[in-house]
Amino acid sequence: MKEIVSSIIVPRITENTGIKISPIHENTLALHIEKMAEERGITFEEYCDLLVPNTKEFDALINVATTNETYFFRERLQFEFLQEKVFPAFLGKKLVIWSGACASGEEPISLYSLALSCGVKPEIYASDIDSDELAYFEKGVYTKYSLNQDGKDFHHLLEETDTGKFQDGKFVLNPQVFQSIHLHKYNLASKLLPDFFDKADIIFLRNVFIYFDNNLRKEILAKIAQKLVPGGILFLSVGEICCIGQDLIPSTLEKRNFGKVYYYVKTGEGNPLLKSMLVDKTQNPQENLEVLKSFYSKKIEAKTEKEKNEETQKSKKIEETVTVQAETRKPAEIFLEVNAYLSQGKYSKAYELLEDYNPNYAEKFYKEYFLALTYKADMNYDEAIRHFSIAETICPNFWLAYFNHGFLLKEQDKEIAAKRCFEKCMTYIESYIDSKNTNFDFLSEEFSAEYFYSLCKKYVLGGDEK
Predict the structure, then answer these.
(1) What is the C-alpha to C-alpha distance for residues 256 and 85, in angstroms, rounded to an integer?
(2) Which residues pair with 97 in a beta bridge?
């Protein structure tokens, strides 16, 4: 039975959806087929004959093949950026957003409530290939699993904007949101552009590229660029934007950042609202740091006295960490400068910086890690893998090295080696699960250890069912 799944069913799924199925996840597909065949009173092979594209049987199999782990306001920093810089530019105006892999709806619902709270009129198009997830979205009843610490600072907006109500331990969606959120089934691997909207000001396409090979990633990104207005923004997940090679990005998309939030902007004449609001912060590393300090200082104003003190200390810590001092080249400072160069494609500058960087022996693994990130961005994958390995050897509990090393191996279809890296990452990260801090906070883009642990789990096991 497993041979049939591996040799016939999995290639059929990949051909029609672009989704790459891990060997471990093949067992899940086999169990589904076996269960459905038993319910029909037919053999395993006979049910496989029913699995042809554009049938309800094949659609159900695709639903099993996809994992949909999501929650409200996932990747909090991106929503803070929208609240601080993007949505205010559309005050009282219409804003078109496409959530291209909406799963059960937490992402578009989060965008809807945040936009309303900023005085923006959102027109949101939410699509997914999984019909079961779209049905769950339409039902509009969410459990505690849709609420996570990562986005908890925004949860109050869900009720304050009349998006829905919390009752009996669940969040129940107000049906009126579907006047502004439009649901569509869409296969990202389709050769056709989505026809349910014209152009979008903002596109969210997060946590889906792990399913696709590089050729399909490139095709999808090219389609996305066509569906953005000039000056429009594309958001990927934090794990993807740092791992997708520049050679896959269309020339019409420029990588930019605001503090620790990275995104792509479509070039051209530009949407005047976005153009006036989005300034490239990567041209000068020191400028970038000033933006980051400003970002935190603004947030202090709305905090309680205790929180103000905490945020002030955080702002001071950032300032101390990133101030360029020739005598003391701290890892956090080097990391920000390297990131700034890589985001501009200035690889030679990054190499020069790292050549002059001579940390003490206890911090030598940072230099190897930064070299690995630079070689990866420069598409010298063999050298990147070598330097990730050196960093791991020098600092055996350096879980972020294992994570990025695994991601690179996975992109090269080295599934077994990648799995080993993700498993090691999970082993070393477990001690941080209940903590807000890790030993490598400044490298992890302020995302929790639990977040990276869940990504590793997805890559190793195919993720959890909802």
Answers:
(1) 14
(2) 124, 202
Q: For 17-47, write each residue's pLDDT tens digit.
A: 777 776 656 777 888 898 899 889 999 999 9
Q: E strands along 39-114, which residues?
A: 94-99
**Do 33 and 47 form a contact (C-beta atoms < 8 A)?**
yes
| DSSP label at residue 247 | G
pLDDT at 311 over 60: no
The per-residue pLDDT for range 414-442, each reduced to its tens digit, is 888 888 898 888 888 877 666 556 667 66
User: CA-CA distance, 448 to 391, in Å (whole number)?
Assistant: 21
Q: Which amino acid is at 213?
A: D
- DSSP run (H or E) holding 30: helix 23-40
The predicted pLDDT at position 332 comes to: 85
Q: HSE-up of 139 (CA within 13 Å, CB side)?
A: 12
- Classify residue 327 by its DSSP letter: S
Residue 329 φ/ψ, nearest 5 degrees: -90, 95
For tokens 């939410």, name the residue: 126
Contact 262, 343 (CB under 8 A): yes
DSSP state string for 146-211:
G--GGGGGGTHHHHHTTSEEEETTEEEE-GGGGGTEEEEE--TT-SSPP-S-S-EEEEE--S-GGG
- Of residues 106, 80, 100, 82, the one with CA closest to residue 228: 100
Distance CA 202, CA 227 (A): 10
Residue 288 or residue 20, greater confidence:
20
pTM of the model: 0.58
CA distance 65 to 260: 33
Closest by Cα among 365, 378, 370 to 353: 370
CA–CA separation, 201 and 75 (whole Å): 20
Beta-ladder partners of 265: 233, 254
Do 205 and 275 form a contact (C-beta atoms < 8 A)?
Answer: no
Cα(328)–Cα(324) distance, integer angstroms: 8
Output DSSP code: residue 413: T
Cβ contact 421:452 at 8 Å: no
Residue whose entry in the numeric block shows the structure tokens 């929503």: 79
Q: What b/e readout covers 57-71, taking b as 16+ CB neighbours within 10 angstroms?
A: ebbbbbbbbbbbbbb
Phi, psi of 381, rounded to the nearest 5 degrees: -70, -35
Edge-first strand order for the sheet with 200-204 is 181-185, 121-128, 94-99, 200-204, 228-235, 261-266, 253-258
